[in-house]
Amino acid sequence: MAGLFEKSASLSLNNFVIFLYLSCLTTNFTASTTTTSAVKTPSRFATKLIHRDSALSPARLACLGAKAGFSNNGDTCASLWSTIYGQFLNRHSEPPVPQLLTIDTGSNLLCLQCLPCTKCFEQTSPTLPSPHHTPHYHAHPQYCTISPSDKCDPSNNCKFSHEYLDGIKVAGLIGTKNFTFDASDKGISTVPNVVFGCAHDNDGYNGQPSGLVGLGPSNISLANHMGSKLSYCIGSIRDPNYPHNKLVLGDGAKIEGTSTPIQVYNELYYLTLESISLAERRLEIDPEIFKRTESGSGGTVIDSETIVTFLATGAHVVLRDKVQKLLDGRLEKVEKPGVPSGLCYKGKIRQDLIGFPDVVLNFADYGEGDFCMAVQVSPEGSDLNVVGIMAQQHYNVAYDLAASQVYFQSIDCQLLDD
Predict the structure, then answer these.
(1) Residue in 305, 401, 331 with CA at minimum distance from that of residue 80
(2) For 300-342, how does the pLDDT look when each residue is reduced to its tens digit (9 = 90+)?
(3) What CATH number has the domain spanning 23-250?
(4) What residues does CATH 2.40.70.10 cover in the chain?
(5) Would you state the torsion angle of the CA atoms of residues 344, 349, 353, 358, taken in this order, to the nearest 10 degrees?
(6) Where are the transmembrane segments (predicted)?
(7) 32 neighbors 89 (Cβ within 8 angstroms)
(8) Residue 231: predicted pLDDT
(9) Homologous superfamily in CATH for domain 258-416
(10) Across the chain, how many H-helices and E-strands are there?
(11) Which residues contact 104 (CB under 8 A, 6 or more apart)?
(12) What is the Cα gyration radius of the chain?
């Protein structure tokens, strides 16, 4: 099949996926203290991912574009209402209490709401008690350089303050602590000295997640803490009951498939997009559209929290026109408010698109009897291209940070079950 990365790797996007009413992925995480005085970092752990509804792709893209142009601006592109969620267990209490966390490759800090709160948001699970008086919590002023807004207080504690893309504001203290994860392969896996933010002042949020787990390239992220490898396998986003979605951190990450180089710039993962193909024919798109400029704008980011795929205007117009020529006259075009691609048709994907050529784009269900092209044009003023999570369905996506490579393997995630 034709792919995004024609020379370096071949990643074909799935043709028929949800455009707007998306299902998002989650994991089973566990944050805790431990009575063990010396805990060795495990070489790996694996945990299942499950679905949860979400949106916010356009706002996410705008923020990623801003982040690409500025260094050291922290994790402000993260969203507490986001695409991929995780679940962890609070082992401060008995029995352990499940908690939801956002899983995000575009940010770095593990951040969760803690008591006491100056302002608390409502969450599905009980709020965590402050860890400051529990074993193995340590304040670390050296982490006060995570973002420009972070600083040390008179007691030498590192204070942080982040404003997320959806207007949510969180503030608290940064430290390290032992976290115990509910691993799908070993039952319980304790990871020592994880850098995390304990948010005591939270404003503007009301929802399920308790916080966020950053899997970005920074040395403070959980991905780097576990080594330099991570992988996730995502089945059908349209199936909320699919049981085989999985995240693996550490040596157990499945580093297989076709690879392409990744570059880290301002703590985002960049790919080298060289061309786009439709029906095994390379589209006439200027390759410069896909390259990052010397000023840092443009380029192609792979991101777990952006939902659909975004293309800069010059690339999107060519792809959209080609797809429209194939479908006009064959299907009835319909107008759908809020669909930037503007390319929606009446019909049933599995019935009316039989024989449609392999393309590097997604089609998505959009209500009863309609579907839309799920490759959107980047907002006006942005030349950033983003490979979103819908394009990564039915692939095991593996990051080898030490080798600066990302791998794509088309696979049934069930085959990866331990």
Answers:
(1) 305
(2) 999 887 777 889 999 999 988 988 888 887 777 877 776 666 6
(3) 2.40.70.10
(4) 23-250, 258-416
(5) 90
(6) none
(7) yes
(8) 94
(9) Acid Proteases (2.40.70.10)
(10) 4, 27
(11) 78, 82, 84, 212, 213, 214, 215, 216, 304, 305
(12) 21
